[in-house]
Design a protein that fits this description.
two-stranded antiparallel ribbon, about 70% helix
Amino acid sequence: MNSGDTAWILVATALVFFMTLPGLAMFYAGLVRSNSVLSVVMHCVAVAALASLLWLFVGYSLAFDDSVGGMIGGVGKAFFSGITTDRLSGSIPEIVFAIFQMTFVIITPALIVGAYVERIKFSGVVILSSAWVLLVYAPIAHWVWGGGWLGDLGVMDFAGGIVVHTSAGVAALVTAAFLGRRSGFPDQLQPPHNPGLTAMGAGMLWVGWFGFNGGSQLAADGGAGMAIAVTHIAAASAALVWSAIEWIKFGKPSLVGAVTGVIAGLATVTPTSGFVGPVGGLILGAAAGAVCFFAVDVVKKKLKIDDSLDVFAVHGVGGILGTLLVAVLAIHALDGGGVLVESGTVGSQLGVQAIGVVAAVAWSAGFTFLILKVTAVLTGGLRVDEEAELVGLDLTAHGERGYDL
């Protein structure tokens, strides 16, 4: 055991959990109407609790136990069986690794919350999130990180471009399409009720992402430092590009736009953060700011899907973009160190990355749709009635008000 590595991953674990509560909860809460602000926070709290226990029960074992045919882990580590304080995973205790990975399984289904805000039954959130953790997240995590077939194929996903962002983004798009649009979409929707709250949540996500990407090095070394540097540069670059496009297109740069750009940059750099240097981070951020900005228009105006808080356009598109660009950017000229992808093999690595993306998209879309169909039957329909949607989910689902002025 290396005490320095262990101490850093303990800190990174706290930072990644901080991303969900309060970071993501505040980010999403500011974007909805004032009469549904608490429902969004409640969704994040419920997902955090459910995902944590499911990870303990069997999720960690399915993701990281010995592989069964490269598709899924066994159940030998269910309830963290055999994970004692002196059992190691690399240079850190396995219990530290398991809890660090738990924070990833918490935030991934929590990202999907942004697709169905203001119109879903709470019982639907509970069933959908629980089934999704076991049927979508755990298998894909095993494929990439747990000794599964994508890892064997050579897929490069440093901190979750495929496992977290692609899988959650695709699930969000499928869920939004399945649920249908909010009343008044797209012309009569109210603007975000508290952009300042959203900006504070984005700031917490930005800080927490240093643990997300830097912690994925699983060591307290220069690689972790470089991952954090690249992460920060990409976020800053994406924020400025997103704001510049807004300024040119609409005449005014918005706060919500700037912080959405930050999140797009962070999502896009996630799969590459351990494989590139500062110049790579700059390029990734700029690409994220532009591509994800226009993806929002495609989803809402062209496809007319009410992905309420742009989960697919930001996380799904960002994760896919970053995953594919690994093959192009992870070369000597951009990472400042050893050659990770030889210039002559960029094409073959790009093909491998594309296989990883396609597999995750297909698996997440298929099983998310199946889970939604079953959940709709179990709950008598996923959507709240029209009156509840008008009054807001805070009172109708939870009996509370976010603001009592």
